[in-house]
């Protein structure tokens, strides 16, 4: 993990084109998969599952028997932990609920905004390198609170052709009955356009690998999506008050997700930078996924030395990290300096895994700098807003002149005519 200055990092980022090149290479394959799914439906899903996952399926939908079997395979401690996390996540997201509102502007005029849930949501739950029951909670609970009518999960099967039992148990715990044993770009295409077995959805949410992310980009417009997520990332900004072991452990916690996970440690202390790097490699040797972590740190890990606190926060806002930890004295006082971050963890006892699993805020977060203009997944992602306008005859007549003037200024005489007809009667266009 290299130690560099803030200026060196920014210069490095300006000259990086790897992601763009990777996306171009991925897109050809992804678009072919999407087109195949649209053309041949279920058969393409069976074929791609065999080709990519090494599994020959006979049924795409998880059966009731498989749910029952999964429940028997998980232990009681998992269930208890899951339910505690579920309670915290529900409590947090409950506060995001919005209500329809109306107001009477004046006599004869009622305006408002009506809130309604989307009809059907498709949720992608990753598989492959790990199982993510926590992602089931984080994605399904907001949809349930929004009162989405139908929720379907897609997730890659294990080598035995079944879905991970912890994922299935989490799905049943939050009230999801429809789970499809498909993953990758083909699962996104199936949700976006429908097949003989998979029903088309209105919105697709949930994290996934690069193929999933690019597929979501290409189906957007035909269906809504939450975000185009990149590899996971963490940024820890710390001063000498933070224990070295804590900083190192938190950086490693995100690097284990994926070889392309991005890890940043920002400090204005060269001494602390060296201590943290040494501690990371000590802890690394004790971890099961150390090969993934090593690859991530080597290619995408950076320890960045800043001149002062101002430069530290300027850099944080430039990176706009998915997860930001402020391990500083009086960390909460520094919060106003943060403009761009998906989730912010304050102090030495608010590590990133607390947010991943238990605290309550959502762990489906904007990545790759998109926290500069997007937000964590929430109940609002599953709601629609409709504007309400009601004028009486008298109120419309009072407003007729400016409406006609604006319409005619824009050359839209049919717009003006709709007002003339109500004001002056039949054949009243002037």
Automatic annotation (TrEMBL):
The UniProt record gives the binding positions of NAD(+) as 124, 186, 209
- Quote the cofactor binding remark: Binds 1 zinc ion per subunit.
Q: Which annotated residues bind Zn(2+)?
A: 254, 257, 356, 415
Kindly list the biological process annotations in GO that this record carries.
L-histidine biosynthetic process
Q: Which GO terms describe its molecular function?
A: histidinol dehydrogenase activity; NAD binding; zinc ion binding
Q: Which UniProt keywords apply?
A: Amino-acid biosynthesis, Histidine biosynthesis, Metal-binding, NAD, Oxidoreductase, Zinc
Q: Name one Pfam family in it.
A: Histidinol_dh
Recorded metabolic or biological pathway in which this protein acts: Amino-acid biosynthesis; L-histidine biosynthesis; L-histidine from 5-phospho-alpha-D-ribose 1-diphosphate: step 9/9
Tell me which cofactor or cofactors this protein depends on: Zn(2+)
What are the record's GO terms for cellular component?
A: cytosol
Which reaction(s) are listed as its catalytic activity?
A: L-histidinol + 2 NAD(+) + H2O = L-histidine + 2 NADH + 3 H(+)
| Active site as annotated | 322-323
UniProt EC number:
1.1.1.23
Tree of life domain = Bacteria
Q: Where does substrate bind?
A: 232, 254, 257, 323, 356, 410, 415
PANTHER family according to UniProt:
HISTIDINE BIOSYNTHESIS TRIFUNCTIONAL PROTEIN, HISTIDINOL DEHYDROGENASE HDH
What does this gene product do?
A: Catalyzes the sequential NAD-dependent oxidations of L-histidinol to L-histidinaldehyde and then to L-histidine.
Q: What's the family?
A: Belongs to the histidinol dehydrogenase family.
Official protein name in the record? Histidinol dehydrogenase
Question: Native species of this protein?
Answer: Oceanobacillus jordanicus
